[in-house]
Design a protein that fits this description.
The protein is 32% helix and 13% strand. It is α+β, with helices and mostly antiparallel strands. The chain has two domains: 42 residues, no CATH class; 61 residues, no CATH class. Helix 3 links the parallel strand 3 and strand 4. The longest helix has 16 residues. The protein is elongated and about 70 Å long. The chain starts with a strand and ends with a strand.
Length: 124
């Protein structure tokens, strides 16, 4: 089977299994797999998805602002994974008060009985 610039070889235990695999793959290519075996924009393997919850964050300030609003709107739990965490950072700028300071935001949420879980990586 040829897949763009690659070739896939299937080793089937019996001829009957080979026919089943062949039929299943062809059925998938005609239905749910249609989007994944045709050429996509920018030579991507995946099709464009509409109505997703993804955001394009162009720079760090957009990301930090999105994190600030996510923390502010959290109702149950906050999970944070990082390898270097600076609690004094202001997530939204310009910083005119401590309202958007990372540690102060988490402190307010912790008082409101929201669980804060931190996973810090130590690479060394």
């Amino acid at each position: 089977m040829d897949i763009f610039s690659s070739r896939l070889y299937l080793n089937c235990p019996t001829e009957r299994k080979a026919i089943e695999y062949f039929d299943d793959i062809n059925r998938m290519l005609k239905t749910t797999g249609q989007d994944f075996h045709s050429q996509q924009r920018f030579h991507s393997f995946a099709p464009i998805r509409m109505n997703t919850k993804c955001k394009w964050l162009v720079d760090g300030s957009d990301y930090m602002e999105a994190v600030a609003y996510a923390i502010k709107s959290a109702t149950e739990e906050i999970y944070i994974t990082d390898w270097f965490l600076s609690p004094e950072i202001y997530l939204k700028r310009p910083a005119l008060s401590d309202e958007w300071r990372f540690d102060k935001m988490l402190e307010k949420k912790a008082v409101g009985e929201i669980t804060d879980d931190f996973f810090l990586f130590d690479l060394f």
